[in-house]
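Researcher: Here's a chain I'd like modeled. Treat it as a single chain, no partners, no ligands.
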Amino acid sequence: MHIQINTDKAIQGREDVARFVQDAVIARVGHFAARITRIEAHLGDENADKGGSKDKRCMLEARPEGLRPIAVTHHDATLKLAVSGAATKLRTALEREFGSLDARKV
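Model: Modeled as a single isolated chain. Structure tokens:
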């Protein structure tokens, strides 16, 4: 499972952010790694220097092998919270998708 990280120009500390994203995604959806070819993370600060609550955005798109892409988005006050929230949403979406598929095979 390859994790690709894209950030807008307002995101600082890209190496630390990339490490955090990888750790958060693997912790929540790593058990699906054999069924996913790639996960793309799109990180952004929607208000940049202006600040504001819940202006950090994380969109995660999983590419399950042989299936349509699954995308989730989470907005929060910090980038870490946005990533954590999106990773949790992605886990739920993948569990639902793979659970439905596995139930049909029985």
